[in-house]
Amino acid sequence: MNTDAHTLLLNMSGFSLINITFLILIAACLVWLSTNSAICNAATTEKYWKHGTRHHRVHVEKSKLKEGLKFNVLDYGAKGDGESDDTKAFQAAWANACKVEASLMIVPSGYKFLVGPTSFSGSNCGKNMVLQLDGTILAPTSSKAWGGGVDQWLEFKDLVGFMVKGKGILDGRGSVWWTKSTNDFKQVSSSMDTKKQSTCRPMAAVMFVGGSKLTVTGITIQNSPQFHLTFDSCDGVLVHDISISSPGDSPNTDGIHLRSSKNVIIHHTNLACGDDCISIQTGCTDVLIHDVNCGPGHGISIGSLGIDGITACVSNITVRDVKLHDTMTGVRIKTWQGAKGVVRGVSFSNIQVSKVEVPIMIDQYYCDHSTCKNSSAAISIANVEYENIRGTYTVQPLHLSCSDSKPCMNLNLSTIELKPQPNGHQMSEPFCWQAFGRLNAPVIPEVDCLQEDQSSSNWGPHDAHKCAA
Length: 469
Prior knowledge:
By secondary structure, the protein is α/β, with parallel strands linked by helices.
């Protein structure tokens, strides 16, 4: 290579290295400026929200809110000391969270919030809100705090895609009401089924009304004045991995109460209370209950149905893989005399009972008063499956008491193994009255009172017309 060519190559190499170094320096500067600008903006934003949270009367315009924002009740003035009334702070937090789709309302851990009876309406709310409950919410114990005409403590109404989740506690502190007379509670219970308003006692700790695609998970509900968790006129309900508890002698403290609701799933839940662990009322259809522990309590019940002669309809109910211990009944259907309607398509399977008074029961003469009026009218019960029900009983293995005018039809029992475990009660043999169906071995003890299934003019598809919308 000649001298001129070598000199030219050296000059080109130098130029290339210089330019590359220069470009790298420019790129580094741009990255530094961009990063500092983002940090600046983030700091400004953080400062803005912190400034807003110092003032408890936070007002946010809906147009400025973004999906998924968080609303902590502490930022709205809640004290969380268990004594100060935090009702207004919860209402204010809800008012702002409600404006945002997929918003998160936070009840933080480490605090106890005293909240009075409140209705959280969702009629103008964004969809898919979440209540993150990690702290404890306490109900008031004075009758003055409840006022007149209030039947529930916390009501969630007309919400779509709403979820309650967390590890928190809803404490109804109901012991002050349990000392009242049993008759008062029965009066309130009757009014609940007939949808009459009552001002005698607070009814439900938590009630969902008219919602769809609802989820309750993770939380604990305890010591409700009466019903712990109620779903009324809801479509699409998922309850799982929750705990409900109150003493076994607390009156009318149903665990989960369903009424006029459909597409309901309840699973992996522990229920201990003074009444039905789960009660399924009129208007319910397509309900699945599985992997639930129940006890103490009155068992899992369809009913009571048809009080005061009203029409009651329940269909497509599945209860499986359930454990019941120290309960009054296991799986039960209970209806009042004088009622109309139907119960159809019910399946109880893989039920484990331990020290249950009566594991299998149908009672079409249900009466929780000292006396009840006799009537020939009755709800039609048919197509009920009992499969793989095992364990111990303390009073009677099976009690099927059906109506003379509407016998129970197509009751199928298979793989029933129930053994007595004396517990101070007088033991009774299986009992059937106007009950028709089939037995598939093994069935222990022997049930010779179930009559062979047959067609009957006393029941049929025409009964379903009473339940047509």
